[in-house]
Amino acid sequence: MGLGFYGRRRSMGFIENTMSHMIASSEIDDPLLRYIREVESGQMNGYSETVNFGPLFSCQGAIADRGSAAERIASQKNQRLNLDSVARIVTEAEWKPLLLDAGLQTGILLAQSSDPDLCSMEPSAVRESFRNHGIGLSTYENGYIRLWMPQSVLSQDDVQHLRSAFELVA
Fold first, then answer.
1. pLDDT of amino acid 99
2. What backbone torsions phi and psi does residue 146 show, to the nearest 5 degrees?
3. Which residue in 97, 109, 110, 144 has its CB near the most CB atoms, within 10 A?
4. Is 95 within 8 Å of 119 (Cβ atoms)?
5. Is 153 strand, coil or helix?
């Protein structure tokens, strides 16, 4: 796991100087940091090393998600509205939504099928059935599914599409 720190603009020079010193003195031995600094400066050191780019993807996700507090609150509200809508849809299709207390809810809905045949199917077969109806979700043993709610409110067409897919798969 990695940690990142986002300094204030007036601290940028201090952070940059400290980091440069620590890299030069080998106090920091981070291949990804070294690679990024070489690319930024345009001065490659002439030897290569295997670098894991995975942290850059999670960093980009964190940056993209940061937004303002008002935007985050609105997104969370939309996800909860979507969660309520989708929970009603899965209940109508005889799935059992597994809901947490309101204060612990996120944008994720877990549900379990009440159909014994569906519960005995391989998760990949259940996932394929939903995919054939245009729905992407995670599937698990014993008929469990996991859906992530979008951060914008579902349209009536989206709701109807979900309803149809659950009726056809259930």
1. 83
2. -135, 125
3. 109
4. no
5. coil
Q: What is the DSSP string of 31-83?
A: HHHHHHHHHHHT---S-------HHHHHHHHHHHHH--HHHHHHHHHHHHHHH
CA–CA separation, 80 and 126 (whole Å) = 25
Q: How would you classify the pairing of strands 138-140 and 144-148?
A: antiparallel
Q: Is 53 exposed, middle or buried (0-12, 13-18, 19+ CB in 10 A)?
A: exposed
How many residues in total does the chain contain?
170
| pLDDT value of residue 48 | 65
What is residue 1's predicted lDDT score, i.e. its pLDDT? 54
Give residue for tokens 């409110």: 153
Contact of 118 with 126, CB cutoff 8 Å: yes
Instruction: Looking at mean pLDDT, say which of 21-30, 58-67, 156-165 comes out highest.
Output: 156-165
Residue 170, pLDDT score:
72
